[in-house]
Fold:
Amino acid sequence: MAYASRIINHSKKLRHVPNLMRHDHAALVRWFSHGAQSSVCKRQDVTKTRSLGYIPAERERVSKFAAGNLVSSGSSKNSCSRTTIRSGIPMGGVLYSRELSCANVLSLFSGLPTHQEIGMPSLSPTMTEGNIARWLKKEGDKVNPGEVLCEVETDKATVEMECMEEGYLAKIIKGDGSKEIKVGEIIAITVEEEEDIAKFKDYSPSASASGAPAAKESVAPSPSKQEPDEKPISSLEPKTSKPISSPSEDRVFASPLARKMAEDHKVPISSIKGTGPDGHIVKADIEDYLASRGKEVSAPTPKTKDAKLATLDYVDIPHSQIRKITASRLLFSKQTIPHYYLTVDTCVDKLMDLRSQLNSLQEASGGKRISVNDLVIKAAAQALRKVPQCNSSWMDDYIRQYNNVNINVAVQTENGLYVPVIRDADKKGLSSIAEEVKHLAQKAKDNSLKPEDYEGGTFTVSNLGGPFGIKQFCAIINPPQSGILAVGSAEKRVIPDSGPEQFKFASFMSVTLSCDHRVIDGAIGAEWLKAFKGYIENPESMLL
Structure:
């Protein structure tokens, strides 16, 4: 029966729902403005009223929102520009429910027309701030959904920022070249009507938020009433602390040998600053004091050395976004990941012969030439498929082993180091890998990589042998991956032949595998290198 009575009561409350949309929007604004002010003045006593099934809890949320955000002269405007509140509003004896955009409600009190604040978007998982490369739209231009507003330089690439809604670009707050803009910080204002553009000519987010300090200052004097109660407490503090602090201030802590030296040389020990544990004066402090007292005349000599150093000619180069994120990630990797390194020499004679045959076929068909690095990527992908433990990442509570083999390829550009990804490299042919590597490398040099071009890698290959002739090096792991392969150059060596006292020439390439010891044990890393060497020295096996 209790459940039946509740159902009957709720059905009675729903009788007023058909009147929901009959009220004028202007009446809603007038009520909301009046209700917001009264809720502040009466400390939200308005929530105590009930009218025809009105829910007090929902009205209380509206009152708190009005008191905390709307009547503070726009002090919290930035924090709720894109939120939507749902308010229960009694009008004419019925429950009036409607969704209100916070920005629209704020504009009613600030005197500004309806507008939208565009914040700096987060365009990559690691992005915390970005730079505005250039604006493709200028103030006053009409913008449509899908049109590019500006180019944003993220921590890894320059990405085009598209408009999400139709309107007019009223104000550009962060112009071309603006740097270190935090994610979420306002960069522009859009309006719905063209005639509203002029109203934002002098708009500034800092000015709109200036009510916050004023509100804090108005509240700050309130604790002054409690000062008389606090003064007796503070006045007692010096009386209790003076007997304790005065002897400790007069006492000088020094070692016995330092005291004896000070007495012998008639040095005021209280004027010496100790460099020993907890500020104790030691023998070296007395010796330094004696030496400085004897060379007071020659003290200005260090300034000449500083003057010589100041004459050095140098140029300060500001950090780019890619440089800063590369530095932070590599520092994090070396400080938190236990690296160890395995190196092996692989004979590449058969690999070079196969490459020559494939390139002749590629040239005949008009395809891209296949490089040694393309063959290395394919061999690394096949080895990861054979030893999947190396295709993993360390998590706090588990080791995540990936089913996809996505190889990041290190590409050096004028802007910094990029690592575009070749997805499912183990399933792709050499011609597809060659075309994709060249395409992504060109995009990296043009600084036009998108997040999907470099995110989601499970293993990295870095080659300094072919382009630079580096024989061997150790690479730093790219977190959250657990391995990276450093490829050196190929060189000819003299090795024993099948017969006695017979020798032959062969080309060998040194490769070094950097492993995360939390994920890859030494034997597992050696097993992976064995599989990789097998594919390099017998490249036909990669086709099986």
Q: What stands out?
A: The radius of gyration is 36 Å. The longest helix spans residues 227-250. The first strand starts at residue 84 and ends at 91. The CA atoms of residues 276 and 446 lie 57 Å apart.
